[in-house]
Amino acid sequence: MSKSELTVSRWLEAHLDRSAGLTTLPRSLVLADVTGDGDHKLVLTDLKFASNERSRLKVYKGTLLTTDQTLPETPSSLITFYTNSYDSKIPAIAVACGTELLIYKNNKPYFKFTVVPLPFSALEQAVWKKLSDESNRDVSSALSDLKSVPFHTLSSRSQNLLSLEVNEISEYINKYSTSEPKKFSPITCMTTLNRSTQDKDAPACPILATEAGQVFILDPQTFAPLHQAVASSNKTTPYIIQTIGVYDVEFRITIASREGYVTLLRRGWLEGKTLFQTTPNIVDMALIPGDGFIMIATTEKLLQCYTKRGSKVWNLKTKYEITCLCVIPLSYINTSLLAVGFRGGSIHLYQGRTLMDVIIGPDTPSAIIFGQLGQEEHVMVIVTMSGALNLKILKRTADFNLNKEDSMSAPIQQAKPLPLPKRSKLFLEQSMRERQNPIDMHQNFQKDLIRLRLLAARAMVQAQSNQTGVGNEKELLKLSAQVLGLGPKFTLNLTLENINIERALIGLNIILHCNPTIYKLSCYLIKVPLIPPNLSYKIEVKVQERDLENVVEENDGATENVKIIRVFASKNGENRPVLAAIITMPPSEVSTLL
């Protein structure tokens, strides 16, 4: 990208409030029509870590703060989703606070979901049962039994008991000995997954991930768990969770953990599969729509790109530390950019590894989100680490020079948009059928796709069986053959290639076999000399085809099935060949005339 292109401003400065005093983390702010009037608002959580202050849930209409509610605990994540398709189109706001999921509708409390408690050890349960009996209470033996249990498997009550001073233990036991202890795992991250369709206002299932590695998929209407799984077989703590797909058809849940693992969950899986692990800690993760690439930002100033199967595509070293990521979908130019926030205040927009634009913010960005705010469709909301709130509007004429690049690579006729036909009755009926039978249509599509893959695999096997060059990956040896001549005399040229770059081939023999009633060879056993690395050795064999009339009488006309020469490559002292090939001989000029 040229320097002159970077100086062109594609953004309008809409609002900057340095005195907002916001403390917001990524995945703690959303843009949604929370009142159902078509006017999208900014919903965020303002974290407060002081003992005399509480975190708050705030709703902004444009630049004005309209709703400010107190939260019981420090929130970890925030999402919005539609509960059903029958009521008025008002989405629900879900805030994760500790082990509880607080759901709001119309800016009022609507429902509360609590994570299912985890099982704890029988020894801990027996200890608290003994402590509940004041006549037989032995505090010293109870503490020693709790210390024998791994600390991370204990409930929060037992962990607090072991961390108290000696003079505070008796009072703590008297306070909690009458109730049974429970072990809960707090919610660490959340996201949503559409239930049956990809529509913008379709019902979506909330997905929760806990500190213990549990993943819950909730029903959008009853908020009962539809599916429960484990993020990974390893001991991991989910940190970021992203989804692609539809719950009723097929979906992919990508989870990034604090330990550096990135795992995958699919429909019906009870345990996640590890895609890859990064050595540095993960700062943020984003999924690029369409391509399905997984973008990872690490603490070592690296921006990494992986495929959906976990293969690394590229690695980009940045100048500054990365603080957050955000996907910028631009439907009017049919592309998606990745916004990367850096320490110092700059925000870079990338398409792949190509830098498309640079935005200078008031301070280091803490969280970025892009979408519709009010009636404006393309608004970037930036919350900085100093607490400032910054709104930027993308100009309608901004194309990021993509049209220029496309016009250079495609003819002018192809750059013109194709005229779209009007909606016909057949099109509407087909759309209705797709909405009514999505599962059956998807299953039929999968059957056709599997059948196509089977045909492609058969064609590939047939092509490989007919090829003239074959190889052995273990021995790093390749054999190719070429037949010269019109017949009945042929010349067979064999080429042995040593594709090993470190070791030479020694003690190799070539054995040729054919039907003696059809062909006569000049030699049947050839000792191959030493072949150095990355070099080849050529062998020439003369082939004489016998009298065709006698061959036809002896074989009853079945000469086409036996007109082959088999070539075997073996090593000294070994019975099994290291390489085998079948050479189909062409018909001779005499047989063609007959």
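(the above was protein one; protein two follows)
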Amino acid sequence: MFQRPPTAFINTKIFGKFLKGLDDAVFENMAKYLNFTPNFLSVSDTYDYGYRLFDRFVGALGDVVYKRTNIAGNVFGLILISPIILGRFKNNGEVIKFIDNYFSNQQMVNVLIPNSSASRNINIFLRFLHRELNKSYVINVKDPQSKGFLCFINNLNQINLNHKQIFPILNGEYIIFYDTKNFNPSKIMEKIVDKIWKQFNILKFVLISCGYYFQSPALNINFSKRSNLKLTYNLHGENVKFTIFEREPTALYGKTQIHTGENLKISGGFGGLDGMVLNNLVQYLNFTLIIQPPSDGFGYGWKSSNGEFFGSLGDIVYKNSQISINGRFLMSYKTDEIEFTHFIRSDELCVIVPKAKKIPQWLMMFHCFSAITWIIIIITFLISWFTWYFLRSQKRDVIVAFIETFSLMISIPLKLRKKISERIFLIGCLGFNVIMVGIFQGSLVTSFSVVSYYSDINSLIDLEKSDLPISTSLDVFRNDTKLMINLSKRTVLSNYNSSMERAAYYGDVAAVERRDDAELLMKTVYLNDDGSPRLHIVGDCPTVNYLVYIVPKGSPYLPAFNLAINHFWEAGLLDKWYNDAIDFMIMYSVYNKNFKINDELAFNMGDVQTAFYILIFGLFVSFLIFIFEIITKTEKSK
């Protein structure tokens, strides 16, 4: 314990009385409460509170770390010991070797020297580097092909005033030489490292001064071996801003039952694919998550005609966030101020059209065969009719030949003929009848048990013929073919929610949506009362794209994000998280909707109405003919 007024006076008297501070009073009452005799020891060195000095601890902190005392009696602020790694070079040769190893991936290194830092010693040092190392050094000229930077400063204010010059890109690799003779590494240098790390978001840097080096908390460099610069991807609780907004099914808020056993509080309550990627990034990289929705509430965002950016895209372009964690297509967003992460999935952009209408039950029997098949059957019947007319051995009658041929076609037996030609014809008609009637009856059974629809729009050619306007905010028809140009002319600007709803409930537009999302919406949202879908996905999808996240250009966190996402992808977790959300939403939808499913087995009048229509038609025609025959016979009798 050491004297530190006003909290620790340690046997100091004024006017004959001992002064007591907070620390004195606490120890006096602690000794009474626990019944022990305190043995006050002074700090073993001259560093009072103490701190971490290179690879050892000094002061009261060192006495506690090395167990020379049971407790440090002075009040300490509640702080974390800095994760900065400190060490010392034995000679200039080790410095040169370290620089060579550090920039092993760079063929050329940029040397940054603020005007006030220029000195004869720096020039001598650079000439020494040129002679010792096979590497080019460009002074105060930024080579766009190199991310290596060697910086020289001799004044701490230069970091604040010239930080954009000293750190021109966030994802660069920096060695910073601090040229000073009055050097206290325990205090000043840790402040510099903390400022570079937290305020300027530089992850790859080493600070060197007076032979000592200070390593970024995100680095893990083995100085004794020749190895490439490697990040530990441990951000030590650094605050990282994420932009995310709720979007089904990839970013679901508050659905804790989706991912069993996962703590969604880590990701701010978000689940689904994007939510789980966020959840595991926080744990994998050890940072403090700061979630913010798009600053203007416009979701994905866009670039306006005057060059202004909106939504989460704008937050990334203007560097208000480190990453937009809602997956979007890997495509041009009309800016060079963003970069893309490793892809998370691939998906197609498809055209969604209204589902074709159901075929009325009374028309089902006519849809057992295609139109061409019906025409061939009719032509076959006409040929058989006239053939039978000329083969009949009895008196030739067109009407009788028609009735007999029709009877053969519908399995009504006829009297066996004596002529061999007639018998062979009857055998052929019988074989044709057995096959066609069997197919017809089987098709009728299928039509009663399966809901049938008119032909859907299954290709982009069908879509062009349909004349449906295409409602979308995306440029999906990029090909220069005549078909794509015609479809592109029919697009109208809209958002995907309104266009999907209009296509489902009004049927007067076509929408554009991701295939995976469209399939989910068709199973959970856009359904008829009996559970059948209201929409249909056109088979020919105009484009296929990867889904990615976006970060600001030059983001120092991009390598860390990419490594983590790549591990998730290789482990199959991305597909698992997506399928978990899909399965949950489908089960939730089925559980909460009461579909009117007809489970009756008996046929109703709707099923057999065609038979009654045929019977009524036959009775009506026969009645007319009967009246006509009566009138004709009456006139003849006169």
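Reviewer note on protein two: The longest strand covers residues 345-354.
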